[in-house]
Prior knowledge:
This protein folds into 2 domains: 4-236, P-loop containing nucleotide triphosphate hydrolases (Rossmann fold, 3-Layer(aba) Sandwich), CATH 3.40.50.300; 251-379, CATH 2.40.50.140. The chain is α+β, with helices and mostly antiparallel strands. β18 and β19 form a beta hairpin. The protein has helices spanning 44-52, 94-104, 121-134, 150-162, 180-197, 208-214, 232-237, 242-247, 369-387; strands spanning 4-15, 18-29, 33-37, 59-64, 67-68, 79-82, 106-109, 112-118, 168-172, 200-205, 217-222, 225-230, 252-260, 263-266, 269-272, 282-288, 293-296, 303-312, 317-323, 326-332, 341-346, 351-355. Mean pLDDT is 92; it is low at 377-392. It is built from 9 helices and 22 strands. The strands form 5 sheets. Strands 6-9-10-3-11-12 form a 6-stranded mixed beta sheet, with helices on both faces. It has a 5-stranded antiparallel beta sheet with strand order 15-14-13-16-22. Strands 17-21-18-19-20 form a 5-stranded antiparallel beta sheet, with no helix packed on it. The structure holds adenosine-5'-diphosphate and magnesium ion.
Amino acid sequence: MSKELIRLQNVCMAFDDELVLDHLNLYFNDKEFLTLLGPSGCGKTTTLRIIGGFATPTSGDVLFDGVRINDVPPYQRQINTVFQKYALFPRLDVFENVAFGLRMQKRPDPNNPKKMVKIPEKEIEQRVMEMLEVVSLKGFERRKPEALSGGQQQRVAIARALVNRPKVLLLDEPLAALDLKLRKDMQIELKRIQQQVGITFIYVTHDQEEALTMSDTVVVMDQGTIQQIGTPEDIYNEPKNAFVADFIGESNIIDGIMVKDKVVKMYGKEFPCLDGGFAENEPVDVVIRPEDIDIVPVEQGQLIGTVTSVTFKGMQYDIIVDFRGFKWLIQTTDHCPEGSRIGIKIDPDGFHIMKKSQYSGMFGDYSSFSEEYDELDDASLTLDEEESGDAE
Ligand SMILES: Nc1ncnc2c1ncn2[C@@H]1O[C@H](COP(=O)(O)OP(=O)(O)O)[C@@H](O)[C@H]1O
Ligand SMILES: [Mg+2]
């Protein structure tokens, strides 16, 4: 887990005059599941293409096992890719789709190294069957792709990439076309496959939940730069700036002043927290997660606000509370009717203090939350309708 396999060193990529990757420095360990996470257009696919050898960086180096591979073509790298559009051969059955790459290959004859020979049929059969077992598709060898579900087709694509025994598998939003339930199953399945074959997976997604579920390491990107690298827990609990805090999960992000170690001031009031290491009276961004806020009677509240919207979510209510014009999201099992005045209490470990950044003031106010909610609901409805093939 700790051996370094790939390193990107000061990698920049420009298209025309636009810098889409800005001095990336990043390493990937052997047998690691690493996810590049960020909004559309932040440079994830470009990064993956550079690692795979489908694009050459404008400047900077790509190292594999310490050797510079900038100019090594894709097929000579020990790296394979599963694309989002996984394009199986429609006329070939599952077995032949997976075997295809092996049938094309030639390698030195063990008895006469100067002679190039095909991989023997027996070995092909054994390797294909082994991979179909790994992706849980044994028994499907003779099916054509059209007779497979989306998730099964995706697994054929993964088997096809793995059968070449690469050291690294690159996956670019491979689950994006699947519906939610299948996507969740495949997330678990992919993680299991990665552990079973014991190679490095470099995964690209814009879905933060997916990234947190599967990864050993998450790299959060925005506008061609790395915002944070860490374990899913690090990224969630200790976001480095307002961009990361907003992108990963839900966050109220409030202007504050770090009065001194362990005391932060918001809304003119001092709150005990656990953070330190800031200058005296340094302006900061304060992150408070919606699940870390307790609702208390008004007279016991550290802050008092007005509930402006309530959404029932099954396990809890999402309520929006107005504190002097800044709207917070609070997740609670208590029912608080719209319009009611409530007090809130936050334990010291419920605060996470961040340095001011270029992202300060851009995120963390839930004023437009209800509208976003409606849009999200609409979007998931249309998706469901499109994807449930048996709907009338
Ligand atoms: N071949 C290309 N020519 C010009 N611009 C490109 C090319 N490929 C990507 N870009 C631009 O680079 C930026 C990053 O793209 P991409 O890496 O695909 O982002 P992501 O995968 O994170 O959505 C985008 O602004 C995109 O328009
Ligand atoms: Mg992309």
